[in-house]
Structure of ImpB/mucB/samB family protein:
Amino acid sequence: MKRTILHVDLNNFYASVECLYRPELRDKPVIVCGDAEARHGIVLAKNYPAKAYGIKTGDVIWQAKQKCPGLITVPANFRQYLRFSRLAREIFADYTDLIEEFGVDEAWLDVSGSVWRYGSGRSIAGEIRRRFKTELGLTGSVGVSFNKIFAKLGSDMRKPDATTVIAEDNFREVVWPLPVGQLLYVGRST
């Protein structure tokens, strides 16, 4: 049986959940951050308007505010994020029971045994993305491939709300020209 692996990544997860409950913030630069008073004052997530100012996850809040003086900070609400994470997992479970979580906002799904019922990996990815929008009010990016590493790479390549297929017949053209640092677990030390 041919393997079909999806990597699903909920886009800007914490910030997207916050903007869902505060629609007036959607078009403004927003970061979700830890508690500066408790010395946990870093950016945990940012929306796309904040990202446009060069704000990165892990930035210290004061540095983020220097990059974007009108930046809106929102405290993290992990209870809410876990709720949405659970709802996303329930959607995944409609397509496969082979789910490997990778944090609260990402997961690999082995849908190899499901394609006969739901269509190709691309079709399943599209259906999951559609359900994220209609049922959760969020977007996700999905990588479809024959292994976990390329599926993860695919979900990172196009955001937000996109599907990228890296197949056995095109992986050389897609992957080989990329910097090696784009692969999962390949960092500066590697």
